[in-house]
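Researcher: We're teaching a course module on how sequence relates to structure. For the next exercise, students receive a sequence and then see the predicted structure as tokens, so they can try to spot secondary structure elements on their own. Here is the exercise chain.
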Amino acid sequence: MAWLTKCWNWFWRQSLLSKVAILGLFAAFVPFVLPTVVNWFRPTMIHVGVSFYTYERGMQPQGMNTLYFFERRNLVSDCSIRREEQSVPNGRAKAPDPQAWVLIKLLLENVSDRDITNLRVGVRSPAINQSTQLLTAPNRVAIGQKEAPPDVKPLHVLSIVTLPGESSVVVTLKTPIDDNLREFVYVKRRPVTIQVSYVSADQFRPYPPIVSRTNVVKMLNRESVLRTNDETFSEEKLQVLTLSPNETPMKEGAVSYRTLPRAKACSEAEAGVW
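Model: And here is the predicted structure for the students to work with:
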């Protein structure tokens, strides 16, 4: 408040003509400045939560049987959040091809009562590349694309056409674990970081949001609540179709996929570690 007192004292020391000129400039300037000031200090309309983990579906030979499994693990504590297994005699099962992904999930909450249009979120992570897929729950019109602003590292920008008032959406960035990402995470043991650089929309200027680190399990539970019309991600559960005795056995093809290093089961404290 000291600077306000100094300004006030300075103003009263001016001549009458100077005071009139200062007041005139102030009156002309306020209509242009006030909306900007209000816009910068208005309550935040978007809350952002982030979590990430790996998902793997694979198969391992077990003598006369083949072990099929699905596993979701915490990428930070490298422990298994959930693992399902099914052992089937060789040639007696159909299952999706083995593969693993890193999944980044962003919970975007519109805490205002107004629709937000042209919502854009700038995200940067070593786990995002040209193979990254974008999914939303519930279904929203959304796209993700690489942008390279001047003098900064490229960003992956998520664009959502409309986020209705007092609603939420979980955006999933799903990236296959290739040899480079496998080496980055499991050989070099480099941490997978996530940076949400900015959010913007028609209703507010770009600003760096405060990002809350969300427990993986809580994020998945929130996503299941938001999901509608029984839509599910195929990679979120073990899908193995066992052949009947009358059906012709499947030929076991060569599998080039290398399973991820085995992880211990998460304790209750480790499951949601960020």
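Model: If you want an answer key for the exercise: The helical segments are 2-12, 16-41, 179-187, 216-226. The longest strand covers residues 46-62.
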